[in-house]
Structures are given as structure tokens and as C-alpha cells.
Amino acid sequence: FERVTSGLNRKVYGTENADLGEVWGGQRSYEELKQNLREARVFWYFGTMPAQYTLGLIEAMMTGVPIVAAGPGIRGRGSYDWKHYEIADIITNGTNGFYSDDINELKGYIQLLLNDYDRARAVGSQGRKKAIELFDKLSVMRQWATFLKRL
């Protein structure tokens, strides 16, 4: 996070982030969170443990914020065993978001999206389409129905 976002206007929201100092944007209500996402130009995503992707990523994609995410190689270097980091299955690089294992490339993607509003809108729009395909209510209901029929 620090190496990819240093020098940029950045905020981290949510609980257990107060130790980040001035980078911490505080805890947000649902309405404030929606407004923050609507106004965001880029959503940096690094993943969590044990979830390989989170509601935060899904909410950002559903809002149409372009995603820049750590690649599977970066995620695999930590203390966790990330056998199934699914960002590469969700994001098609340059189309509906960006991911990389290279810090400078990640920074470059963020700068590209900050500097090119039309490209950021197009990437965010494609990310939203992918999120709806994967995570909207009807899609999830169909996935559960398919799974339950196999039992």
C-alpha cells in the first residue's frame, strides 16, 4: 500500500485503521461510504485473509470505481498461503481494471486512471458490468440453485 500509493491523495476507511495516521479517513456510515465510492477516481485493492476478495471490492466495482489490485505474485509473498487469489479471474487487465506484481506498474495504472478521466470511466464501467455478472442478486441465486441441485 505504502509503496504503491505514496505521494497520492489517499484515504483508508473502516475500523482498525486508525494507526495509519493522516491516511485514515475514519469509520463511515453506509451513506458516507456510498458517497466516497461515487467520488473516488481509483480503488486500490490488496485483498484480505482469509477472503480472497471482499465486499469492499464488490461494492467498489458495483459503483463503477476503476480497480487497481495487487497481483497474485505480490499477494503470495506475505505470510499467508494465497493459493486461490481470484483477482486475475475477475479482472481483465486494462479492460475492467488493472492488476500487476510490479509496484511501479501499479503506480502507473493509478496515475493513468487519475490523469485520463475517460479511460477511468470506461474501465470502471466495464468493472461494474463484471461485478453485476458475478455478484448481483439474480446471478448469486442462480449459482446457489446450481450448487444445491448437485447435492
Account of the protein in words:
It contains eight helices and five strands; from the N terminus they run H-E-E-H-E-H-E-H-H-E-H-H-H. It is mainly α and 151 residues long. Helix 3 (55-63) links the parallel strand 3 (43-45) and strand 4. The model has no long low-confidence stretch (mean pLDDT 88). The protein starts with a helix and ends with a helix. The strands form two sheets. Strands 3-4-5 form a three-stranded parallel beta sheet, sandwiched between helices. A two-stranded parallel ribbon has the order 1-2.
Keywords, separated by commas or semicolons:
single chain; 151 residues; mainly alpha; three-stranded parallel sheet; two-stranded parallel sheet; 5 strands
What's this model, at a glance?
This protein has helices at residues 2-5, 30-39, 55-63, 72-75, 87-90, 103-115, 117-135, 137-149; strands at 12-13, 24-26, 43-45, 67-70, 98-100. The chain is mainly α and 151 residues long.
Topology summary:
Elements: H1 2-5, E1 12-13, E2 24-26, H2 30-39, E3 43-45, H3 55-63, E4 67-70, H4 72-75, H5 87-90, E5 98-100, H6 103-115, H7 117-135, H8 137-149
Parallel strand pairs: 1-2, 3-4, 4-5
Helix pairs in contact: 3-7, 7-8
